[in-house]
Amino acid sequence: MLIIPEALIADLVTPADAYDAVMACLTAAARGEAENFPVIRQALGEGRQYGFKSGIDRAAGQMGVKAGGYFPGNAARGIINHQSSVFLFDPDSGRPLAMVGGNLLTALRTAAAAAISIDRLARPDARVLGIVGAGHQAGFQLRAAARLRPWERVIGWNLHPEMLPRLGAIAAELGLPFEAVDLPRMVEADAIITITSSPAASLMTAHVSPGTHLACMGTDTKGKQEIEPALVARARVYTDEVAQSVSIGEAQHAVAAGLLDADKIIPLGAVLAGLAPGRQSDSEITLYDGTGVALQDLAVAALAVTRAKARGLGQEVEV
Ligand code: NAD
């Protein structure tokens, strides 16, 4: 079994790699070549979440599990709130193949998924990017989205405004003007990424213009919520995995309220595979409910293993 510590990941997997890996696994799932197994996610109290996301990609020969969660007290420990590790197994024999640090990989694959949704579903003339949230993931989201479209400016809102200058600094590094705004000014955005740990909706119908694409990435657990359910119901909704979208994703609230029919939610992979339509008009609101799936974790972890082996990095251990 190869152990790849967190510190090596930045040298092994780039945002462009993550984009390609997530494209491939979402497409494989839509073609029936890969599947996510049911998620186990437990609340530990005081906002802590711990769980397991597992699956198999038969097309890519990957099987495994990501163990980890969200621990909001970690800032005081000097480490990030998201903590995870990915374990890969041989799909034929079940033997463990690798244990890979999952923190940066999670940020890269989550940002890649939102970026793919923007690339495929935002209007071609989208020029203003909105970001709701300014925590650890938000910077990765901004960097990934900036690679794909010719944004003219970025606007950001966060419940804790003192966190926004860090996002502004990343925008400056990318050569993009950045402005901290109130939520009603999100109507200026053509695409909005939401990436908070909020337990209640922040982004309301009145904050979003017709034709906007929403990449809703923060809600990955029962009880979290970023978007007003009526706005979710009004949108054409896409997701990484319908079963997760209705149970732990942003759509959980609209579905529970009877505002959205689960059958109407479209896997983004089906769009990537040419099996389902994308945006239908310049005026409709599209929404990607990015819940975060095991197949993404396996894809980027497997890539890290391939690259590490090629360069003789990581540590082999007998288990
Ligand atoms: P973080 O702890 O670094 O930042 C949290 C963010 O949420 C900050 O912007 C903070 O100001 C905001 N926030 C905190 N409490 C809030 C509240 N009550 N109302 C509104 N906003 C609030 O977290 P992070 O690592 O940036 O992760 C953000 C979210 O994304 C988390 O919910 C995390 O679980 C989720 N996440 C999802 C995926 C996925 O694949 N969908 C992957 C990784 C993380």
Please provide a brief summary of the model.
The protein is an alpha/beta fold. It has two domains: 2-106 and 295-316, ornithine cyclodeaminase, domain 1, CATH 3.30.1780; 123-292, 3-Layer(aba) Sandwich (Rossmann fold). It has ten helices and 16 strands.
Q: How are the elements arranged and paired?
A:
Layout: E1 2-4, H1 6-12, H2 15-30, E2 34-36, E3 40-45, E4 48-57, E5 62-70, E6 82-89, E7 96-101, H3 103-121, E8 128-132, H4 136-146, E9 153-157, H5 164-173, E10 178-180, E11 191-194, E12 213-216, H6 229-234, E13 236-239, H7 242-247, H8 251-256, E14 266-267, H9 268-272, E15 286-289, H10 294-310, E16 315-316
Parallel strand pairs: 1-7, 8-9, 8-11, 9-10, 11-12, 12-15, 13-14, 13-15
Antiparallel strand pairs: 1-16, 2-4, 3-4, 4-5, 5-6, 6-7
Helix pairs in contact: 2-3, 2-10, 3-4, 3-10, 4-5
Bound molecules: nicotinamide-adenine-dinucleotide (NAD).
Nicotinamide-adenine-dinucleotide is lined by residues 70, 81-82, 106, 110, 133-138, 158-160, 163, 195-199, 202, 217-218, 220, 224, 290-292.
Overview of the structural elements:
The protein has helices at 6-12, 15-30, 103-121, 136-146, 164-173, 229-234, 242-247, 251-256, 268-272, 294-310; strands spanning 2-4, 34-36, 40-45, 48-57, 62-70, 82-89, 96-101, 128-132, 153-157, 178-180, 191-194, 213-216, 236-239, 266-267, 286-289, 315-316. It has 319 residues and is an alpha/beta fold. It folds into two domains: 2-106 and 295-316, ornithine cyclodeaminase, domain 1, CATH 3.30.1780; 123-292, Rossmann fold, CATH 3.40.50. The strands form two sheets. Strands 1, 2, 3, 4, 5, 6, 7 and 16 form an eight-stranded mixed beta sheet that branches. Helix 3 (103-121) crosses helix 10 and helix 4 runs parallel beside helix 5. The model has no long low-confidence stretch (mean pLDDT 97). The chain binds nicotinamide-adenine-dinucleotide (NAD).
